[in-house]
Amino acid sequence: QVQLVESGGGLVQAGVSLRLSCALSGRTFNNYAMGWFRQAPGKEREFVAAVSRSGGNTYYLDSVKGRFTISRDNAKNTVLLQMNSLEPEDTAVYYCAARYLPMDYSDSYLPSRYDYWGQGTQVTVSS
Q1: 58-93 core/surface letters (b: 16 or more CB in 10 A; e: else)
Q2: What distance in Å separates the CA atoms of residue 112 and residue 89, rounded to the nearest whole number?
Q3: Calpha distance 26→18 (Å, rounded)
Q4: How many CB atoms lie within 10 A of CB 125?
Q5: In this structure, which long-range contacts are made by residues 69-75, counting pairs with CB atoms below 8 Å and at least 24 apart in sequence?
Q6: Predicted confidence (pLDDT) per residue in 54-94, tens digit
Q7: How far is Cα of residue 36 from the mean position of the Cα atoms in its chain?
Q8: Which of 40, 68, 83, 115 could form a disulfide with 64 if both were Cys (CB 3.0 to 4.6 A apart)?
Q9: Which residues have a Cβ under 8 Å from the Cβ of 80 and sit 6 or more positions away?
């Protein structure tokens, strides 16, 4: 059974940086493409970023390009989301997700393409 655990969220002021982490256990990490989604109150879950199994390909929501960076450390079974220049609009619960099949852009932004989900970590950005 695959388990995903997110960490690193918190309450910060606008302009501050945070780094989210997600650890996968229970299966071989290298077999999974990884993604980050977020969900604000009253809104649908939104794609944020994704990284291929090898780490060679990354995909981003347009509004976070240049501010957020996704990466993975296969030796530590961890995917990271570095978030810089945070804005109040970034406030949401951030979820880590894993996909067993190979990832491409058409797959990355659809929640239904992912097989496993973490519990989420809250990110709150005050103005």
Answers
A1: bbbbeebeeebbbebeeeebbbbbebeebeeebbbb
A2: 24
A3: 27
A4: 20
A5: 70/34, 70/36, 72/34, 74/29, 74/30
A6: 899 999 999 999 999 999 999 999 999 999 999 999 999 99
A7: 2
A8: 68
A9: 19, 20, 21, 22, 70, 71, 72, 73
The upper half-sphere exposure of residue 84, i.e. CA atoms within 13 Å in the direction of its Cβ, equals: 6
* Joined tokens for residue 90: 């970034």
Per the prediction, the chain carries an average pLDDT of 95
Helix (H, G, I), strand (E, B) or coil at 66: coil
Residue 101 confidence class, pLDDT cut points 50, 70, 90? confident
The set of residues, in sequence order, having a beta carbon less than 8 Å from that of 92 and lying 6+ positions away, is: 38, 39, 40, 43, 46, 123
